[in-house]
Amino acid sequence: MTIRVLVVDDEALIRSGLGLMIESQPDIRVVDEAEDGREAVELALRHRPDVILMDVQMPHLSGIDATRRITAVDDPPRVVVLTTFGNDENVYEALRAGASAFLLKDSRPEDVINAIRVVAGGEALLSPAVTRRLVDQFIAAGRRPDVPARYESLTDREREIFGLIAEGLSNQEIADRVFVSFSTAKTHVSSILTKLGLRDRVHTVIYAYRHGLAEPPSEA
């Protein structure tokens, strides 16, 4: 199956570079490009891509507002947000808007391609740097433990895996960490999302730190 991608950025050079990188892959193709958030919404509805690479700071309509509108439709495309921390303080808002992945623009090409494939497959991810930033925001806000009733329904193993999700680990990394198969790890993650009523692992991270249920990951 070919993954169909919409590239959104207000800089033509970045759109071109992302397009060339994507088109070099045998299983991914660019269906169109948008130069602002308003055009992104229009093209998303027209083409119904599988994945959107979304810039944040754009004219007319920001990437956050565009993401919010796009993910509100039935069976929405998955959104991978690309940004630079130097100019953008909206990580949390973009994730709340429905982004499934958040990467820095200086990420390696292979990381961007991997993110496209991961979110197209129904998962979501955060780069370690973004996870660290998100955690720091909650720490600065002085979040205190607030254990929801739904969390109490998790088994001991599920709570262990919940903590690994909060660290930003993928299903394969979780499987390796707790010595189970990939399919078993995936089953545990799905069960956690269902019990907590969460859409994906990105929102599991938000949930974990919002309620003080996870410790900040140790520095590398």
Q: What would you say about this model in short?
A:
This protein has 220 residues and is of the alpha/beta class. Helix content is 49%, strand content 13%. Strand 4, helix 4 and strand 5 form a beta-alpha-beta unit.
Protein model, in words:
This protein has helices spanning 12-23, 37-47, 63-70, 91-97, 109-120, 128-140, 156-166, 171-178, 182-196, 201-210, and strands spanning 3-8, 28-34, 51-54, 78-83, 101-104, 125-126. The protein has 2 domains: 3-122, 3-Layer(aba) Sandwich (Rossmann fold), CATH 3.40.50.2300; 137-210, Arc Repressor Mutant, subunit A (Orthogonal Bundle), CATH 1.10.10.10. The longest helix has 15 residues, at 182-196. α1 (12-23) links the parallel β1 (3-8) and β2 (28-34). The chain is an alpha/beta fold and 220 residues long. Helices cover 49% and strands 13% of the residues. α2 (37-47) packs parallel to α3 (63-70) and α3 (63-70) runs parallel beside α4. A 6-stranded parallel beta sheet has the order 2-1-3-4-5-6, sandwiched between helices.
For the biggest β-sheet, the strand order reads: 2-1-3-4-5-6
Number of separate domains? 2
The CATH superfamily title of the largest domain: Response regulator
Q: Return Rg in Å.
A: 17 Å
- Portion of residues in helices? 40-55%
For the residues shown, what is the average pLDDT?
86
Highlighted features:
single chain; 220 residues; alpha/beta; Rossmann fold; Arc Repressor Mutant, subunit A; six-stranded parallel β-sheet; 6 strands; 49% helix; globular
